[in-house]
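Work Package 3 (structural annotation) set out to generate three-dimensional models for the target panel prioritized at the project kickoff. During this period the team completed the workflow that converts sequence records into discrete structure tokens, so that structures can be stored uniformly alongside our sequence database. As a representative example, we reproduce one entry of 96 residues exactly as it appears in the project archive.
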Amino acid sequence: MAALRWILVFVFGISVTVAILVRSSGYTGLSSENGRYFVEYRSERIETTQAEYRNLKVKSRIASGAMTTTFCSLALIILIESLRHEYRPKRMRRHE
């Protein structure tokens, strides 16, 4: 059980790092209309090339996967810790 906890902590740390590094370009949105490609930086909309648009779209999917992994691993860590606390023998519990 301890190994599983450490693996989940490791996965959590790696996925947070990947999400931050991939998403650090600062763009907030992507869109395409009538064969033209746009990148939204904060509140400004900038036209871009198709290659850059596709590159940012791939990075966006990677960041989404990393954030999904982050939240799932965090939920599993919390679940494992709550189960570990709940099912300890009575003699090991401190404040009951």
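The beta strands are 27-33, 36-41, 44-48.
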